[in-house]
Every structure is written in structure tokens, then in C-alpha cells.
């Protein structure tokens, strides 16, 4: 073979290699994928982070509702060459394409889950991804924080840092919701507030009992005492800021006769605000007799019936809890698969029906399923029938039955690795409190709450220290609630304006509570301040809304 022939041969070989390379590149740009049972075009598009309309344009002959085993064309987002090993030599071209497509979907879902975790954490923290060679010491120096602070925010670092691990560095300022107005505290130097507190201390009845007998057996005594101590601490705090406050305390003794006696002997209309009574029937009696604003300090199932304009409901109704959760799911779970877990009680059936009706109207929701117990608990097989692999399975609890809740978590944790689920509830009932935090974190348990405070929060820490210094113990949730309610309403009155005017001016955040009375439909008398909180893998909590 001459030199001329060799040149021709080299040219032919080069063109063959070039053609093969271009062909492989084209194969890599788009791959085929075979739909599995329950998968839809919308679900596949969501996994690939693309619009459903774009996926449909790639598959004009498929239609919007293809059945199982239908082959579709999808983009290959890996964009990296695959080397064929000897063990793969027996695979057909079609098998390679399907394997590549499946891997593309799995990688996409994994990346999106990590991105979602980062997005959630960044709502409350500055985040750092651990790089090779970094240590707790080097990170604390770089971010100018103490090692103790870094460890407090990230308990998992006790086992050592891992490459790619996400660390919380410091808290960021609260991000307000769109269009949310924040009330600005202002104190009028000339203001003088007259405050009445009406609580069932039952002082005369309990006078002869020891402290152990009173507080060891009476949950009510603990609640009332803690509410009062929190309120008293708020008043002391405001006095130190220059607010003149005259406080009158009434013991309602838990009977209607005592309430009538207090009303007959005292001019409560001379007060600027009344905190209490605790019981709904007593609130009704007082609201019928006075014109002074009445602060309802705890939630009452009957509070919706308080139509009197002077009764201010500091705790959101359960309907508001449910509505808040539905808004979050609608806005954050495009192509989500919803599974509602309820029981046969009237309340659970009503909540399940309302949730199902609302979510079923959303085009972006893949499906809405209702699961109820058999023989008193939920079998794993029930979830296997409706949960989708590699999809956003959202489980919403509308039950507070201990057995049903426990069996739900047990079933979800034991699902196959490719079938994960996140659990939500709008009412964190006692049944949830009996579930181990590790299990709650495994399913990213997310709930709606009217109180949110963490041990690391500066505001919470400062309050706890000051309260403990005065009362010799850390505050209970009722003490903190008593402080927040009292401080918020008195701070607003300290401005010299009417409560209604300050309510219109915006929401306020206190130690653990948010107070938002801006709802005109409720005549500015119903607090709608709520948080949505999620359990993280390291067992910490993050506010996601």
C-alpha cells in the first residue's frame, strides 16, 4: 500500500470516528424512558426540572395521559460520557438507553432534594458546605464565630465533619412574607395604662394545701400560675422601658358567681385592657357587661362564637391552621402525590374531606388519596398501593389517634428507598409528641404551630436567662405565652393609639409568638399569626414559613 492509499485510509478512519462520535453525542442529548404504573408526564417533567409543555413537545404522539410501559423521549441531563465495561458488553443499545434514562431521573431527584434542603435551611440560617480539609476550628475562624456556637447549631458535627456536609453558621434576619407589614414598637412618654388580669387562682380554696399538693396534682394550677408569671414579667419589662402601668389582679375562682361579684364591685370599664378570664362562659359574661377590650389568653373551641367586637382571640382557630397548611402545600408541591391519613371520627372526616376538596382542584397535584385504618391501624400495604416511586409523596395527618399515628410513621419509614414521603399535619396533637424525634426527622415531619422558638435563638435565650434569674426556673411554654400576649398588647397600647389602629399597622414577632390581626374580615380581632416548622435530619427544627 502506497503513501497515497494510506492517506485515503486515514481519512476514512477519521470520518468514521467523527460520525460515531457525533452519533453518540446525539444519543446522549435525548434518551428513551419507559413509564411505570402511576407515572404521568407532569410527574416526569417535575423530576427533570422542566415544564410539562416542553416534555409534551418532545413527545407529540404520546398525549398528555400515556399509560404504563409507554416509551417517551426525555433530555439526558447528565452530560458526561459513559465508559462501557466488559461486563456491559452483552447489553443492547436499548438497555443502555433505558439505564441511562433511569439514572438521569434518579440523579435529578437526588439533586433536587438537596437543593430543597438548602432552600429550607437558608430561610433561617447562613449555610456552608464542607470542603476538603476544613475543620471546626478553621470554619469558626473564617466566619468569626465561636466553636461552641457552631457545635450548638450543628449537633451532628460531634461525629466529625464530612465532605459535602451542610452546616448552619448563624441565623439570618426574619424574612417577611410578601406584602406582610411589620408593626413598629413605639412608646408614648405620657402614656398611663390600667391593666386587669382575671384568672382562676382559687387562692381561698387552695390556701390550706401544700405547694406539692397544689402543683403536683393540678394541671390547671400550673397553667394559671405560669400564665400570670409570664404576664407579670412582661409588665416589669415594660415598666423598665418607661411605661407607667397600674395592675389589678382578680381571682375568678372558677365559678360564675365570683365573676358576677367582681363585675358588681368593680368598674372594669375604667381599665384599658382585661387579660382573661380563662373560660369561655366567663368571657361571655364579662363581654356582655363591659366595653373594655378583653384578651382571650388561651385557645377555646368556642372562641368562634365570640362575636363581640371587644373579645380579642390571641390564638388562631384550627380552621386557620388547616388553611395555612393547604396554602403551603399548594404553593410548594407541584406534581405532588397527596395521601391523607384519617380516622372515622367526625372531626377527622370533616378535615379530610375539606383538604381533599381543595387539593383535588389543583392541576399540579398528581393525585389525592384517602387512607383510613383497618382493625385500628394503617397497614404498610395501603401506602404501597398509592405512594409513587421517585416522587413527592405528601402525607397529611388528620387524626390524633395514638395507634394510627404510630402505625403511619412505622409504615412510611419502612417503605422502599425510592419511595420516600414527607409527613404534614396542621394540628401537632399529643399522639405526635409520643413519636421519637428520630422518626419525625426521617420523614421530614412538618407542622403548623402558633409558637416557635429554639434554644439557639438570641431572643429566646435572653428571655430565658432573665426569667430564670427572677423566678428561679426556666419558663414553661405557658409562661412564655403569657409574656408574649401581655407584652404585645401593652406595647401596642403604649403607643397611645387604639388597639384596632395598631392591628392595622402590621404583625409583630415576640419571643415565640407571632401576632397578626390584620384580617379585616375578622374585624381585626383574630390573630392569624402562624409558623410552619420542619424537623431536620440532625433533629433540629427549622421555620420554613
UniProtKB/TrEMBL annotation:
Name the UniProt record assigns to this protein: LysM-repeat proteins and domains
Region Disordered, residue ranges: 67-92
Domain (LysM): residue spans on this chain: 126-169
CDD domains: LysM (cd00118)
InterPro entries, per database record: LysM, LysM_dom_sf, Peripla_BP_I
